[in-house]
Amino acid sequence: MTGETPPPAAPRTSRAATRKKRRLYIVLAGMTMLGLAAGLTLFAMRDSLVFFYTPSDLQGKEILPSQRVRLGGLVAENSVQKDGATVRFIVTDLSAELPVVYTGILPDLFREGQGVVAEGNMLADGSLQADSVLAKHDENYMPKEVADKLKESGRWQEGAEQ
From start to end of the chain, where are the E strands? Predict the structure, then answer.
């Protein structure tokens, strides 16, 4: 032996600490993948999301013509105008009104004073170009938001509640 001292040994990490680090990395990678999958799913669904509005909700709100809208309310009395296959009517929540234009066959239960949900795109003039119209299906049905607006205005009939 020459008298030289050997270099100091590198500190040994315990196997438990190595396993904990490995587990931490696996959990972090899993969480990253889960977040990425959720983000991609929401990104893919962005065009199919349709928000429900009442006419009062749409007052003063800037809706782009390309944005799909689901409008719910009551068909206003004396507002239905038929011109061949094109029907024009007004949807109201008793606080505000919004004109709707629909081309196609209306549901059998569609009539003035009844609940309706119309889905389509907003036009530049502030009306809705509907591509689907749903009418209430029985005496008890009414969209929740419309029922809430009717209750607020005092025109809700208790016998019509779900």
Answer: 51-53, 68-75, 81-83, 86-92, 97-103, 115-122, 128-135
